[in-house]
Design goal:
alpha/beta; six-stranded mixed sheet; 18 helices; flat
Length: about 775
Amino acid sequence: MRLTAFSGGRLEAQALRPVVDRDEVIRRQRLTAEAFHLDQLGVDVPLGGARDIREQAEAAELGQVLTASELLDVADASRAAVTVRRALARLQAEVPMLATIAAGVGELDPLRGLIGAAISSNGEVRDDASPELRQIRAEVLTAHDQLQQRMQSLAASPSLRPALQEPIVTIRDGRYVLPVRSEARGAVPGVVHDTSASGQTVYVEPLAVVDLGNRWRELQVQERREVDRIIRELSQSVGDARADLVDAIERLAQIDLTIAKGRLGREFGAADLHRTGRQTWLVEAPGELRLNEARHPLLGPDVVANTIVVGGEHHALLITGPNTGGKTVALKTAGLLTLMALAGLPVPADAGSTVPVFESVFADIGDEQSIEQSLSTFSGHITSIIGVLERAGEWSLVLLDELGAGTDPTEGAALAVAIVDRLLASGASLIATTHHSELKLYAHRTPDVVNASVEFDLESLSPTYRLTIGLPGQSNALAIASNLGMPDDVIEAARTGLSTEERELESMLAELRAQLAAAEDRAARAAADAERAETLRREREQELNQLAADSTRMREDARIRVRDELRDVRRLLDKSRREIEAARLAQAEADFERAEAAGDKLRSEPEPQREAEPEPANVVSFEAPVEHQAEGAEVIVVPGARVWLRGIGIPGEALSDPDERGEFDVQLGALRTRVRLEQVQSTGEPPAENERGRLRVPAAPWSPSEIEIRGQRIDEAVPHVEQFLDGAARSGHGRVRVIHGRGTGTLRRAVRELLDRHPLVTGYATAEPKEGGEGVTVATLATTR
């Protein structure tokens, strides 16, 4: 209960009981697991303002008027409920069940707002709670100021000053009065409201301010009535919302209890069984109760953990050993952890544990003697066990402490064996403690019963509290007495008095324990060797993984370097190609200018009469007439001859004789290339010396001044932009626009990287807002016309 946040959660904790329905147990444990998960995440559910206001809500529904502080509690509880609902809604994926509980909280914000607008945090009704209250309080303040001023004026009046004990204004019975000397009572006409203890002073309300005082008191009464009306209406609103308020508090209490269970699990170290939401460790009864490394939750962090197993292969576990050795603690641990599991509380046990959902848990632990009922310890135990035998079945867990004790050892042992047989026949799971050696032999011979014992260190004469399943315990009475200084002859006489069977049994148990200790030592060494081997294996695996990672990283680095180098080579090739193309364009421009100059010169001279020769379309020509080959005539190409190629309007000059394949070099303006004879349409005579250098240059092709590449991939867009820039430069555009869009900026960066390295681009900038802004880049070109 100390871990809950408010009284509603504490009431839920007090009412918590184990349940026998497995689905309900699983639901509770899933909620606990979610709370434990929140605690591990460090998430604090805001329950600080929660109040249990269920009684106030029910009283308001019956017509009772709440106080201002109670109304503030209602507002705080409403705020807490809505805040928790919103907080857990954000954690729906992490804690779906808690979020579902919180989601049922009604819409209480209007009620909270209504109360908060009318009542301040210090419990006073606000001036603006209603227009009437605001008006009344304004009038109260005015009336009070007028009254104060009048009283101060009277107190300072020279005519009244001799009659006053002091020139001050005070209050008696809510009325403003002056302290008048009793002998001068007649000098101040008015109403006497009080007299001093000595009788020398009377407190008089002057007649001049009685009306003002009455007005002030009347306004105060109106104010109280208006405040009462507001409080009454707010109480009625709370009563109208009773169902939502009660439901919200019940949900907050359930959430508070669940969060407290998560914190309790952290304190217990009960993480292993609550990491997942499936809760498969809860099984149907009858089944095996297995508590791995179970810790009693009340014995602190240094408690010795023990594994307890019953049910399944063995239906009865008989624990033997010396007194104060921990038998009863093991018994209580099994019962307490089972009940905690069925109540939905965290269970401090390790993974691999299983808890059947028993329908009943019976326990007979401690001293049952009763003076009032004339019952001895033995009689008290037998009375309890009779009730257990009548009701226990296969869905029951039975815990019996000191079975068969408190009577004759022989009869007690026989009775204990009979009780165990009866419980085994009923199918119940039984854990019992005993000192009887007969029960040790019984457990050894009975397949459905298993021995267990608590260890005792003979050297330190102290129990180890370790539970060992499979071996019966030794009483160690003679060994303890000997270590404590009992004379040897007494010890030997006692040992002689033991029966042969008892001596053989003790000897066998000592031998078995020695063998068990040796086996545990060998197992510990084997486990240590296995751990070292596993450590070495992990280290070698880590080294191999590191080597593989290094190799992968080196290959990746090499691949990146090669890719970068290839990219640099491609960029260099692209740049060289553009520089060559730019040089060719510049040469062509120079040739064109020379041709224009030559044409101007020829046009200024008289031209001989000759038959006009048609010019190829779209061509500026400064050539002599072409002598076309006759149809079917053989094409003869010699160095220096003019040649017309099919589809090209510019005549070229043959630079070499055709080879055996019919290919030869030809100069077309600034371009030198190699063609085949089949491409030649006609030939002509070599140009005269004074005609050398005359050139037919095609008119510049048309190209747009902008390109849009929005929506294209970078590998598509960049080539398009390169082609566009080349065409735009040939067309003589000095300024072009590249429309790439805003987007993520990736395409814009790729375009500008291209513009940075393009030889024909002299600069670029972001377009003006009216031209597209960040979605458009404007480039300036070095034209080639």
